[in-house]
Structure formats: C-alpha cells, structure tokens
Amino acid sequence: MSHIRGRFQKDAAEAVVKYTSSLPFDWRMYRQDIRGSIAHANMLAKQNIISTTEAKILVDGLKAIEEEIKNNEFNIKPELEDIHMAIESRLTETVGAVAGKLHTARSRNDQVALDTRMFTRDAIREIQSAIRLLQKALVEQANKNVNVLMPGYTHMQPAQPVLLAHHLLAYFEMLQRDYTRFEDAFKRTDVMPLGSGALAGAAYDLDREFVAKELEFSTVTQNSLDAVSDRDFVIEYLSCASLCMMHISRMAEELVLWSSAEFSFIEIDDSYATPSSIMPQKKNPDVAELGRGKAGRVYGRLMGLLTTMKGLPLSYNRDLQEDKEALFDAHDTLLNSLDVFAGMAITLIFNSNSMSRSLGQGYILATDVADYLVKKALPFREAHAITGRLVNHAISIGKTLEQLTLEDYQQFSLLFGKDIRDISTERSASSKNVIGGTSPSQVAQQLERAGRLIMQ
Known about the structure:
two-stranded parallel ribbon; about 60% helix; 18 helices; elongated; mainly alpha
C-alpha cells in the first residue's frame, strides 16, 4: 500500500492485505468505476480545477484501461485492495503523474458509493428484463392451455375448479409486483453521491449536477454524511430479490408436486431434470428444487447486510465493504434462477387428463351445490350446513356428488330440483365471472392485460 502510505512506516502485513482486499469480487464494478471517473475528470476540467488537456489524458487513459480489462490484459495486483485503487495505479503507469489529479475533490468513500449505486441500477434493469422473460413464458403457456381445467387448492386440499391459465397467471401477478418493486427501488438508487468527499463534502467549486447528468442520475444526494454511509439501496435491492426468490420458490414447490406420480400434472423437460444415480426410473425435478433452496441463500444475504448495518455510527466504516459480496451473490442467484425458470416454464408439458381426473376427487363442486341453494333464497350458512351433511352422506355410501340421485339430494333439502344436474366443473369455473375470477371471459381479459404489461 506504499502508494498511499503517508504517515505509515510499514507496509500492511500479508495477512492483512488478504483480509482487507475486495479485489476478488469488486472488480465487477470496473465499468462503473471508469465511467464515474471519466465524468469526474470532465467536471474537474469544466470547473477549471484541472486543464482540459489533463482531463483528456485522464479520459483517454481510463478508456484504454477499460479495453485492457475487457480483453483480459489487465494485471490485478492484490496489494492494491480494490478495483478503484487498481485502476488508479494502472492509470499512473500509463499516463504518469497527471493521474494523481483524478482523485482531486474525491474520496474513495463517495467513489465507492457512486460505483455501487451505478452497479445496482444496472442490476435492477437486468433483473427486470429477466422477470419479463419468465412472465412471457407463463403467458405463452396460459394461452396454449387456456381451456384446461384443474383443481384449485386451499390447505393442499381440492377446493374449487379453476382454469390452468388462471393458476399460471397468479405467478404472473406475483412477478409483476416484483417488477414494480424493483422499479420503485430504482428511484431511491438513482441518486448521485459523488462530491460528498470522505464525509463532509468537498472544498472545491464542483458541479455535482453536471456529473449526475453525465451519469444519468435523476438527482444528487443532499447530505454528505449520509451519502457515503448509506446502503439502504443495497438492502432494498436484497429485499426485492428475496421477495422475488420467494415467488420462484413457491412456483418451484408446485412444479415438484405436480411432476410427482401422485399428481402427474406436468412433465418437466429432460433438459431441466436429472436422473437418479441408482434408480433408473427416476426423473428428479432438481432444477426446481435448487430454485426453492436458493431462496434461503438470498434471504441470508439480506439478513447479513441488515445485521452489518444495524450498529454503524456515521459516517463511513470499513464494515460497509461487506455489501458487495451480498449484492453480487444475490444478484447472480436471482438472475440465474429467473433465466432457468423461464426456460423450464416454456418447455413444460401439461397433462390435462390427469388434471381432469383430479377434478373428480375431493367433492370439488360442493361450494357450487351450496351456491345453488343460496340462489333458491336459502341463507348461505344454512346452505353450507346442508351441503356439508350431503357430502358426508356421499362419503358414507362411497359415491361422488355426481353419482347421487335426485332422491339422495332431496333427503337434505326439497329445494333441490332436476337442475342440480346442471352443475359441472366447466359451469363452476364459468360462474366466477367477476374481475380477477377464473371464468374464461375473465381469464381472457387477464391474458390481454398481461400481454400489454410485458410489452412495456
């Protein structure tokens, strides 16, 4: 660390260099760091803090370093601690002493805050694009299976008939909320901290708004102490990521269940499943299981950073270096999960025959029977009780509701007429013709809305 040793008479111990270095992971922010430095250099020249010639030398040098990194020609030196110092050191090697002017009116504190915000902005947009791909896969499958009926469940018990498309679109809605949550988080991330210095601001005539415009930020931070020590935006990203992974995990759980022999609702494509090492008949839904498991990994990153932040006094503390690995790992995990689940979703094969057979189990039309009585002017609670006794009777004689005779029905209420035979799974679904319901006309509107949203 001799390049910034100053008052220190000794180099850091080798173990300390290794312990404090963030280069193994923060190199990923090189694009953001170089872009931020170019904007800073141009601003310094604009404000006559450095000359335009010096700014051009710095900008050209930074662009050359970016090409070196892209082409894997950049020699990363572990002793330089982080990507910011690595780039500055290389800049000194290539352009000479003028490189030292780049850090005028800037601290690593506000530099790191800037780079992290820029990375997080990019990460949000990347995730939003991946969310859209999974949504498109769900919509495509919903359109392909728009007339397929299946049991809807509560408490994992057959409850009422629903359209498969309606079920798939439930996940579309979850993902849509994730998309808008990330959009909202973007607004609080999109604030430019450079110019805050180490903690107190800068003793130069800076044009922070110029830098913000160059870097496409909506606004600038309003408190230098907060700007260099704020990681709310990273925590918010991790929170959004955790919610999105929770939705992926819920989807994964259903894919695991539906692919089981007991359900047989779906066939997962071979390219998204794995064989058993010992049982030749097995087709394991490992990809879905991993998606379910990785939710815990992202949750852990959120809780880890919340715990790191909870006791930090103002302003900057080195603890904040722990935000990068959490951010990078959560982003990679979520992005990969979205990509894989989009591919798995679009290749699913749905077994409508198995779903149809399941509709005949669990007395799934009982609520429709109760509604039938309500429409005959019977109070719902009384209708509910009568239908419950009717179901109990059917169970006792080993019959389904469809197999009961009119006389069986009329033992429990004379309000039952021949039209009780009109109740069916198709009519049950069609009767739920309210906004958000599972009737074919409502699902058609939901699909139309979903199509519009994914085109935005």
